[in-house]
Design a protein that fits this description.
The protein has 170 residues and is mainly α. It has seven helices and no strands. It is rod-shaped.
Length: 170
Amino acid sequence: MKKREARNPTTIRLRLKATPDGPPPHRRWGGMIWFLLVLPLHAFAATPQDEARARQLFTEVRCVQCQSESIADSDAQIAGDMRREIRADIAAGKTDAQIRKELFAHYGDYVLFRPRFSMGNLLLWLLPPLIAIIGGAILWASRRKPEKSGDYALSADEEKKLRDILKKHD
């Protein structure tokens, strides 16, 4: 008599047999699923030129969470999302200007380290040169030599009053 194996009632065993058409179904489907998962990876494989473009753009874009770092240097999750978005845009064939415009539309002017020139930030662009010009004008005006003062001789009456005041304090 054959001993019966003790089975766990929660365990389900499937016995898939090979069909006359080929391997068991789980092997056919497993290979097909693996093939379908690996097939689209070529779409994400960047050429060296695309990767260089992406890395250049990463240095031009500010991390909206860190605010003082570029997304190339930031470890924040939003920076990773922005890097993936830029790579996807490059893979889609967008130009750098289109990508910057899209980032500006989504995150605002602050996201770019080199903000665009517009009427809204005209004061920010003109204020530094204006301060330098005004400072230079002030330095130029203060470099002139002062005029010599005139000779102020005391009259005899004033000299007498001065001697009297000095005698009182001695």
